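Example for tutorial group B:
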């Protein structure tokens, strides 16, 4: 019945297409005012088991340990249990948010946005993105916007069928995580003793890689006037888990830096590292530098909050305030755009590097592609839809 009150998808799409676009600010001027970003506070955590079952426990939590010198990141490649590429559905995050809300005793804070952290990272770093386009699906229900990344069938296939070389490189990241973590606190904090873990034969190996297994944290924060709930994967904690984000560690690998060009390239990458960690309140990024062959050379600790200062004035310089100001503008623009729609509407945001974003309202045919049949309303799982509309 509600849908009858509003224009059909096609009409609204035609009406909106021409004028609903947001262009980038100039990057050559410093921003005079950037919106405040509230320190993220953790609401709840959860784990995905090896069989990809979501559990409200910390069974997938890992503890940081120093990796051995010269570790071979190729180790265990043949035994990698690789999670199949899938569309970045928001279901797990909504389960956690729903569970957290049951403890609120009816008070319902006004949340402007609910999203996986990876999506917000893409939005905030967009002003400096020169290569990769992306698309989002957006729904707005009772003043809360839900974001999910939209992958075309072609893009999804591309991600599942990586070239062997790319697949190995992505494994290096997971392999590094294995060397840098343990399932128990303080089990082994260094590898100088030469002790080897398990039966696998590599010194300091923390166990074979299974990308189904993840530990996730859900936090609440605020950008400008918008309250945001963000969920994301956390690699490990330093020391013991204290129930907050204060000792979270993000693990990264990168090619060793051998010259000015490598350095500039790395500093560009730091923009993504920075916002990814900043958004969840992760204070430390531990980077393993490696040879092209996958052998670890050096490691370096970066304090997340200090990263912007490291790149200031350098060739690949970026300004986090440009990103925050852009992110605030982006959310305000979307809020104003989707306000005219109805609950079940699905909007498609398209980002084009160096240009900006555009928004269209999907028509019924396009929405059917986004939905998973009767189990969803738009892209939201039906159980969640019924819960918030009940
Ligand atoms: O749009 C997204 N961010 C997507 C999220 C797309 C597809 C799936 N997901 C899932 C994630 O698998 C996870 O369950 O959402 C949850 C949290 O995602 P996030 O923290 O928002 O993801 P992001 O910040 O993009 O990546 C964090 C880590 C990656 O670490 P690195 O250091 O490489 O940035 O999550 C892992 C990866 O370790 N990861 C994946 N692992 C396997 N397959 C994938 C994937 N498609 N995406 C992220
Ligand atoms: Ca990582």
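The residue assignment follows.
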């Amino acid at each position: 019945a509600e849908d009858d009150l509003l224009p059909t998808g096609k009409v609204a799409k035609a009406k909106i297409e021409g004028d609903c676009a947001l262009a980038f600010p100039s990057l050559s001027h410093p921003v005079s005012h950037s919106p405040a970003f509230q320190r993220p506070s953790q609401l709840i955590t959860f784990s995905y088991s090896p069989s990809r079952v979501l559990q409200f426990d910390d069974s997938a939590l890992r503890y940081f340990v120093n990796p051995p010198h010269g570790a071979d990141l190729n180790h265990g490649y043949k035994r990698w249990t690789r999670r199949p590429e899938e569309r970045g559905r928001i279901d797990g995050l909504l389960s956690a948010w729903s569970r957290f809300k049951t403890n609120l005793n009816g008070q319902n804070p006004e949340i402007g946005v609910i999203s996986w952290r990876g999506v917000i990272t893409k939005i905030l770093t967009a002003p400096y993105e020169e290569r990769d386009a992306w698309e989002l699906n957006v729904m707005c229900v009772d003043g809360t916007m839900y974001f999910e990344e939209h992958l075309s069938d072609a893009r999804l296939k591309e991600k599942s069928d990586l070239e062997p070389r790319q697949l190995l490189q992505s494994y290096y990241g997971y392999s590094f995580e294995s060397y840098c973590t343990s399932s128990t606190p303080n089990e082994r904090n260094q590898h100088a003793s030469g002790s080897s873990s398990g039966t696998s034969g590599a010194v300091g190996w923390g166990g074979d890689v299974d990308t189904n297994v993840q530990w996730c944290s859900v936090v609440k924060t605020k950008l400008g006037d918008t309250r945001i709930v963000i969920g994301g994967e956390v690699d490990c904690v330093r020391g013991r888990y204290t129930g907050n984000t204060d000792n979270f560690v993000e693990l990264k690998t990168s090619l060793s830096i051998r010259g000015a060009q490598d350095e500039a390239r790395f500093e560009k990458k730091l923009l993504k590292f920075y916002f990814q960690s900043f958004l969840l309140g992760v204070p430390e990024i531990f980077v393993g530098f490696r040879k092209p062959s996958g052998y670890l050379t050096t490691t370096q600790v970066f304090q997340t909050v200090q990263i912007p200062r490291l790149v200031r004035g350098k060739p690949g310089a970026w300004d986090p305030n440009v990103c925050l100001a852009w992110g605030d503008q982006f959310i305000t623009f979307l809020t104003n755009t989707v306000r005219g729609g109805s609950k079940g509407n699905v909007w498609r945001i398209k980002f084009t590097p160096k240009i900006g974003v555009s928004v269209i309202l999907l028509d019924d045919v396009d929405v059917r592609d986004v939905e998973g049949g009767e189990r969803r309303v738009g892209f939201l799982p039906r159980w969640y839809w019924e819960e918030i509309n009940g």
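The two ends are 16 Å apart (CA to CA). Compare this with the pattern of hydrophobic and polar residues in the output above.
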